[in-house]
Write a structure and sequence with these properties.
The protein has 140 residues and is mainly α. The chain has a domain at 5-52 and 68-106: Orthogonal Bundle (Helix Hairpins), CATH 1.10.287. The protein contains four helices and no strands. It is elongated, with a radius of gyration of 24 Å. It is a multi-pass membrane protein. Its main location: membrane. Keywords: Cell membrane, Membrane, Transmembrane, Transmembrane helix.
Length: 140
């Protein structure tokens, strides 16, 4: 079996560019990265499905080998899931724009506080400040 090197290169570039965009703080750029990665993975499924053949319908073959319908079904399912995720992330971005006039994902201060507390308990390198940054009160 011979694999088309151009398709492999295109799929690799799509996945790589998608991963780069997916790591962005902007919801729209992350969405574009998700779409690029999804298309790249779908292309990998098509490449990995093997050589083309007759349609996988009983009685429609011309004597040659039939194409495997499983990768085609997986790609179709992935397209539907990608469409649903796109609609969801667009709704999140629209709501973020309505509320804050910005689509950047803010830092999670609670997660940073929990991480700092965990490091202080594990390593005891530096003492952890138990006060809450927003109110200045002692944390429980």
């Amino acid at each position: 079996m011979s694999v088309n090197l151009t398709l492999v290169l295109v799929a690799s570039v799509l996945v790589g560019a998608g991963a780069y965009l997916f790591l962005s703080r902007s919801l729209i750029r992350a969405l574009m990265g998700f779409l690029l990665m999804g298309n790249g993975v779908n292309l990998f499924f098509v490449i990995g499905s093997g050589p083309p053949g007759s349609p996988p319908i009983v009685g429609a073959e011309d004597g040659g080998p039939m194409a495997d319908p499983i990768p085609q079904a997986l790609v179709l399912t992935a397209i539907v899931i990608t469409l649903a995720m796109t609609a969801f992330v667009l709704a999140l971005a629209h709501r973020s724009w309505q509320v804050a006039r910005d689509d950047l994902v803010p830092d999670d201060t609670e997660s940073a506080r929990i991480h700092a507390r965990s490091e202080a308990e594990d390593g005891d390198e530096e003492a952890y400040d138990e006060t809450d940054d927003t109110t200045g009160e002692e944390a429980r």
